[in-house]
Amino acid sequence: MKRIILIGPALFAFILATLTIIKYDFLLSLGWHPTQDPTFDWPSGLALGPYGWIMTTTFIICGSIMSTFGYRLLPDLKPGRASRVGATLIMIAGLFLAALAFTTDPTIRDTPATWHGQLHDLSFVLLGLTLFPAMIVLGFAFRSDEKWRNLSTYTWLTLALAAPAFFVKGAAFYIFLFAILVWNEIIALRLFKAV
Fold it and tell me: Is residue 169 part of a domain?
């Protein structure tokens, strides 16, 4: 289980980068542009069109890994309210990441929004509304635990960098994604070494 937790962020980043390269022209046809409009139907639009099933599967796998990560994190932290709440929020955030498998609707379309497109959008919002509080609370849990203390400030700094980029969109979204994936990998590495 430990090794699976370690591969989650790297797997997500690899699939995202690979599919973006493979589906570059398709993404452009949706209205996406890597610098001028980087969040226009990206990364969710990777689940549309050719090879879309790969992104859909990646959402499910990586969401399951994130939930497992939260479950596995809990017993390693010093028992307390912050540990329970933080780990539980990570588990729930993982469920919302997996729920991004409900296929998004293209932004430019002639049809009304679909039920699965609405669920996808709701899942994205709920992912942010659980992941960010999880990081705040885990910062406190880390601070009260000698083994994790040095990751407390790093967790809060990551959140301070990533949270605005989540809402601002544009090229800043790359910063959000990179910061969150690196944070997940560093916490998973610490968990792996602690066991």
Answer: yes
Number of structural domains, the chain?
1
9, part of any domain: yes
- Does residue 36 form part of some domain? no
- In terms of Cβ atoms closer than 10 Å to its own Cβ (0-12, 13-18, 19+), residue 156 is middle
Coil, strand or helix at 50: coil
Q: What is the DSSP letter of 169?
A: -
pLDDT tens track for 17-46: 999 999 999 999 998 888 887 778 889 999
Tokens of 34: 């890597």
Say how far apart CA 59 and CA 111 lie, in whole Å. Answer: 25
Q: Flag whether 148 is in a domain.
A: yes
Q: Which domain holds residue 178?
A: 2-29+43-194
Instruction: Provide the 8-state DSSP code for 40.
Output: T
Task: Decide if 90 contacts 63 (C-beta within 8 A).
Answer: no
Would you say 165 and 176 are in contact if contact means Cβ atoms under 8 Å apart? yes
Does the predicted model carry a pTM greater than 0.70? yes
Separation CA 55–CA 96 (nearest Å):
15
Integer Cα distance of 7 and 188 in angstroms: 9
